[in-house]
Amino acid sequence: MINNSFCVIGGDLRQLYCAKAISNDGYSVCISCFEECRFSLPFEMLDFKTAIRKSEIVILPLPITKNGTTLNAPFSKNSITLDDSFAKICSGKYVFCGMNENLLSTSSLWNSSMVFDYSKREEFAVMNAVPTSEGAIECAMHEYDGTINGSNCLVIGYGRIGKVLSDMLGGLGAKVSVSARKKSDIAYIQAKGFKALKTNELSFMPQGHTAFDLIFNTVPFMILDSHTLARIAPGGSDTIIIDLASLPGGVDLEACERMGLKAIRALSLPGRVAPKAAGEIIKNAVYNIIEEDLR
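Request: output the structure for the sequence above.
Response:
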């Protein structure tokens, strides 16, 4: 490592577990913006300006902001504006965050060569697919009156999350269909023993087919519009739709409400269902960036 001084500023329980994992590795860690957290915190708690000034590496949340102007800090009593002043305080530091384009847009003073996005790392995305998929299944178990075993499930998209989620559902005994665009993905889906569908043909599913019990969307653009919903989840059915895609999502929530369908937007599942694992994933991604880009 190039140094041994870290500060973790804001965020949810993922960031706290990230701080703990770094501390367990023997590095100096301080935290800020967690004054309303009820958990026991074995770290030095400082105001954010002091924490940044005494550290060489600054780890910020994922997402960095939820409103475009202030730091994502749900455990803080105070609102921290992301502006020129904040950029000046971080000047000369190595800054790590999630969705860094939202941070860079808050001030022209940011040195983009010193700001790194751990959420864009491939290993970060792959490892986060596991708690995301577990969280999606937990949500389904809570909302669905039947069992996952024997249920008729559709997973839309065969990316990182789609691959892990479909395997988990199959392992629980669900009847799994998976939709994808690429022919290579269709082949992999069939090789896994799942029913393969083409995503762009979901709106042409024959009327009268057996409605899906559970639909999981992983594609971050509009897939389940009113026309497609009418084909794969007819109004009045007991279908439950869980949207795992990042905002703006891929489900027409207003159409679902009109059709009497239950739709759930399940965002940031790793931080909600497995913050310890998610925090360690953030730590590992930060370490990898340091090793590869800052040596």
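The mean pLDDT is 92.
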